[in-house]
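Chapter review: from sequence to fold.
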Amino acid sequence: MSTTSPHVLIIGGGIGGLCLAQGLKTAGIRATVFERDRSPASRIQGYRIHINPEGSRALKACLPPRLFEVFLATSGKGDSYSFFTEKMEELLSVGNASEAPDPVDSHKSVSRITLRQVLLADLGDRVRFGKKFTHYEEADDGRVIAFFEDGSFAAGDLLVATDGVHSRVRRQFLPHADVIDTGVRAVMGKLPLTEETRSLLPPRLFEGPASILAPNGHCMFIAVHEFGDSPEGLPGFTEEDGNPVALPPGLLHDNTADFAMWGFSARRDKFGLSGELKDLDGTILRRVVLEMIADWHPNLKRLVRFTDPSAITPVAIRSSVPIAHWGTKNITLIGDAIHSMTPFRGIGANTALKDAALLCRNLIAAHCGEKSLLQAVHDYEVEMIRYGFEAVKNSLRAMNQAVSDNAFALGTVKTLFRLVNAIPPLKRRMFKDQGNK
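The token string follows.
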């Protein structure tokens, strides 16, 4: 073992950064997370996240056993995927919901709020809130110094950017690494699973999410999340003084009740608006979506109509531009900070978790004297760039297919899906091939 442990500065307290912090804590490596939000509840996002086998394995590698068990206990079903027309005609359903899913190597539905609770648990003062990163400087002794808006600073042996698609670290370190606006916009909504809302959804939705393939470049993603049996001691959000944080009222911030979520997507010009969706409130966004799906199945329209405006939000879809490997330094990046991708493959969070586990594994090797710190970072970056930008490319392709208004291409896809759906061996092969993606 090395006589000294490197001090890792993690800029950003999202899923990837907190997963890395958990793994380093378990390994006895000093790490501090600097999060710009004032508290854990400053920017609660209450939607569902898809965790695939790679994401689960990354969490298992980084979390202590107790917290991984909490993650499993609060996960919902997700080991199947379906495609429907806008008239709710089934095109294809893949996955075998009749088999008990493997606790690790399976697809899962998780609440973003609950997952962040799990990842924050037991980190204590290793997470510093209210720290808005401004810039870094490289010190003469080889360390890197991070500076924050409140006038404070911190020095460490390695700076890891996990500060998302608008990463300030990336802007300074890799100013040539671009993120583009794809021109696609999404409107997302969340509503409670009641007897009435359950009746709107086909049974397939309770085994895994679904995509609605519609004409005119319109598409919709629908998923449900049903909480498992939460074990006692599920970690909650707390203030610095240890008192519980009161989450804002409303369904968007609720992480106790089962819910359904939907996301309607199309290219910006399809919405027929002069301005941006981000400037519209939930009531107007709901009306806009209802107008665009006016000829869809009544149950899909009811799903949107029953959604409270306070739980409806717009999203501009962005995507990173792949770049070649840069010269390795004691500054690196994970997740959206380097390879932001569209949500159309549902792998963004999983790729960030994979980054965290891979970087953690390499830093542990450096801590044990098996390689130098810079070699550990280099080995991580070479591998991360390979699979990370491959995921960016695949997610962008999936988005372009989903929002294409090519009627012939849509008809071809529908015919293919119906054919595969009628041949069980083909369905099983398709799901197996997509299992870890």
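Two observations follow directly from the output. The first strand starts at residue 7 and ends at 11. Residues 373-402 form the longest helix (30 residues).
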